[in-house]
Amino acid sequence: MPTxxxxxxxxxxxxxxxxxxxxxxxPDDTLPPCPECDGTDYD
Length: 43
Prior knowledge:
Number of helices: 0
Number of strands: 2
Radius of gyration: 9 Å
Oligomer: single chain
Mean pLDDT: 98
Distance between the termini: 6 Å
Structural class: mainly beta
Shape: globular
Largest sheet: 2 strands, antiparallel
Number of domains: 1
């Protein structure tokens, strides 16, 4: 389970709290806090 601050690689990550999706397209991108609810855990 990726969390805020990690670099999990390109992909679409869904917030475990609200389901908001974050798209990372660069291997060096860091997962931000969820833009909808500030959650920190993703699927």
